[in-house]
Design goal:
Blueprint lengths: L1 H50 L33 E12 L5 E12 L6 E13 L6 E4 L3 E10 L3 E10 L12 H13 L5 H4 L3 E14 L2 E14 L10 E16 L2 E12 L4 H4 L8 E11 L1 E4 L2 E3 L2 E7 L10 E10 L1
Antiparallel strand pairs: 1-2, 1-15, 2-3, 3-4, 3-5, 5-6, 6-7, 7-8, 8-9, 9-10, 10-11, 11-14, 12-13, 13-15, 14-15
């Protein structure tokens, strides 16, 4: 009996061993059959970059550059930004003499500037004045040409700082000791017509050096700009008719502008001029009114795109003298300003 049991147990062990060997062979066969496939696939995958480059991930889209806030161009202050422009600026002044007789002066300036670098802008400016006084004959005079350069800096997205160095040559008509009195008077009439802000161009006997600075905040459709210019006038001709060998003048201003819509803005200037020295004309004025001058102007400007990099920005303003002598002479000034910006 015991022998039979032992024989049966031995037979069961033998069956288990045989079954385990068969199972082991069956499980090993698929693995061995996959190994060559994977080995064959390795060269193909290695060769894939040479035959067909793997697709590169698409670059992440870049954020669009922020659109700069629009700049409100002042009426008689300088631009605080670097720009290539051709600008025609005409002012028509209506005024009265002490007897109430009316006169008209027309002063036209033509300016050209070119942006050499993003900051540096040389410029040249020419002018002509026609005067029809309340009494006597009128005349027309070409005035001193002015030239120089502006260096404009961006101080972050909202602030601009611009430095100017300008010169004016005494090439005006009406200068010298033997000038035609009517022509000389026409040249002088441009001073108040331009609110005494462009004195360098009407100083017919002087060579003028005028450094200046502008600072502007531009954001949210608003422009706020301040300006100051120092003028040093040195006489080079007309000793018999102009006693001052040198004199110093200061001009300054504030501009506030706002874009109602992208195509239209409104702007206002407040301008102040003062003689820092005492020229003969100021010394001989018992009222003291010729020492300084305060004016204001308000107007509307349109912004029209003509091409990808070409804009025309015509504007019309109305100006008044806020103190004597312009208030006493009842000055009313209309300005037509046509800048063509490239």
């Amino acid at each position: 009996m015991s022998r039979t049991i032992l024989f049966a147990m031995a037979a069961c062990v033998s069956i288990l061993i045989t079954s385990s060997r068969v199972l082991a062979q069956d499980s090993a066969t698929p693995a061995e059959s996959e190994a060559p496939a994977s080995a064959a696939a390795t060269p193909e995958s290695a060769a894939a970059p040479a035959d067909e480059p793997a697709a590169q991930p698409a670059p992440a889209p870049q954020a669009a550059a922020p659109v700069p806030a629009p700049y409100s161009l002042p009426w008689q202050l300088r631009p605080a930004i670097a720009v290539t422009v051709i600008r025609s600026d005409t002012e028509v002044a209506f005024y009265e003499d002490a007897a109430g007789n009316s006169g008209v002066t027309v002063a036209t300036m033509l300016l050209g500037s070119y942006k050499v670098t993003p900051e540096l802008v040389p410029f040249i400016r020419l002018g002509v004045v026609g005067n029809s006084p309340p009494t006597g004959g009128g005349a027309t005079a070409f005035v001193n040409p002015a030239f120089g350069a502006t260096y404009a800096l961006k101080l972050g997205p909202e602030f601009r700082l611009a430095f100017l160095l300008g010169l004016a040559a005494p090439a005006s008509m009406g200068g010298g000791d033997s000038a035609d009195p009517l022509v000389a008077a026409a040249a002088r009439s441009g001073v108040l017509t331009r609110s005494a802000m462009d004195n360098a161009m009407f100083a017919v006997n002087d060579f003028v050096v005028f450094p200046g600075v502008d600072f502007a905040w531009i954001a949210h459709g608003v422009t706020i700009q301040v300006e100051a210019t120092l003028l040093e006038l040195i006489r080079v001709r007309g000793e018999k008719v102009q006693p001052d060998s040198a004199k110093t003048n200061l001009t300054s201003g504030l501009h506030v502008g706002y874009f109602i819509i992208p195509q239209m803005s409104v702007g206002a200037d407040l301008r102040y001029q003062r003689w820092l020295t005492t020229p003969a004309a100021v010394k001989n004025d018992p009222t003291g009114a010729t020492r300084d001058n305060l004016t204001a102007a308000l107007g509307v400007r349109f912004h029209i795109k003509l091409a990808d990099s070409l804009w025309i920005r015509p504007g019309v303003s109305y100006g008044r003298g806020l103190d004597d002598p312009m208030a006493k002479l009842n000055y009313h000034i209309l300005q037509l300003d046509i800048p063509l910006v490239f």
